[in-house]
Amino acid sequence: MRVIVVGAGQVGSNIAESLADEHHVVVVDADPDKVDSITYSHDVLALEGDGTSIETLEEAGIGKAGLVIASTDVDETNIVICGAAKAVGDPFTIARVKKTNLLRTWEYSAGAFGVDFMVCTNLQTAETIVRIADLPRAHDVDTFAGGLVRMAEFEVDSESPIAGETVSEADRYESLTFAALFRDDGVIVPTGDTVISEGDAIVVIGSAESVRAFAGSLTPAPSLEDVNEIVIVGGGEIGYQTARLFEDEGLEPRLVERDPGRARELAEKLPETMVLRSDATDVDFLVREHVDESDLVVAALESDEKNLLASLLAKRIGVERTIGVVEASEYVDLFETVGLDVGVNPRLVTAEEITRFTRERETENVAMLESDRAEVLEIEVGRDSLLFETRIGDAMARLPSGIVIGAITRDGALVTPRGDTVVEGGDHVVVFVDTDVIDEVTSAL
């Protein structure tokens, strides 16, 4: 399929890279430097031009395109691109926006703007923060099979109780599968004898209860079920949406906002949130308001540097866990090294959601890990599947290395996969797959 991606920034580049192996991708950007960069770094056709221009879209092959993704940094430009694409062709259109009100308008107006699917960066980031907050130590969390199956990625540090253990020793949960280890630049599909090392990122798949219990064994930090105090620093759109989602979970967070007008507005919008007007980088204020007694601090200020400072101050006064918004993707690892527990990059979250949606048109559900080094797929087993009426052990012998069957759901119940488990037609299978073998695996399953 021909895919046109307008916008060659971090979002567009990540999307293009993810789709290039399976589709003919054309990337359009008005910045010649970005066009040159993506030409040399990705196996795509890059064009310099204005994505809102009919002439540019025609040069990109809009007449043959099955998908147009508008991913510039300007909401209105992305909407115009989708409308222009619909005017001269019939592609499926995806628009990236930051403003939640645009998403709400689109949701209530079928076919509005000529956009078939819309992703809101601010809302997507807030949802990611809340999912991660629910599992201590988690760096990535996703659900499958209507919530019956949960996938989570955890970092193993020197204090982790599983550091130095084999997978067999660490596997103390009946409905949990150790799907993979990310170590250095490699992906390891573990066996029972594989030793879990400090610095590994470990991926587990299983029931929500088992994944939660495993997370609890790694750290004493509470999940959302047990959390008493959450402080959100910054009342911008991400901070507001995060507070609203915590309220939906039955929680009563506190939100710190410096601007008096914005603080007043947030207090009216968030009935279950205590809004405090102050500078969250003021240590005296943090101590006076007992922020040190918080279970979690979320830093959602207007700059990466302020988010890092707020997080470090929170850790210094005794806060157990911090999650921070990091706009510059190259800073995420650095910030996590110097003290931030989890950094969430809005652009990467958006790119993954758009790529996920394009993949979901072929599978039931998709999650991408470690910047698409691996994927977790949910697939409904049909008669053409290699798994149909087959023992998992026999099927795995015919599949390439780099795949793990993480969970099976059957008639609304979870089945923990073992080598002698027979997969039945209609089962939903959650599979971890190294991206190096993704094409071969998806065609077989």
Work out the helicity level: 25-40%
Number of E-type strands:
24
Low-confidence stretches: none
Give the strand content.
25-35%
User: Major sheet, described briefly?
Assistant: 6 strands, parallel
- The top-level CATH class of the largest domain is Alpha Beta
- Coarse morphology: globular
- The gyration radius over C-alpha positions equals 23 Å
Structural class: alpha/beta
CATH fold type of the largest domain: Rossmann fold
Neighbour order of strands in the largest sheet? 3-2-1-4-5-6
Tally of separate helices: 16
Average pLDDT reading? 88
Count of separate structural domains: 4
- CATH H-level superfamily of the largest domain: NAD(P)-binding Rossmann-like Domain
Q: Identify the CATH architecture of the largest domain.
A: 3-Layer(aba) Sandwich
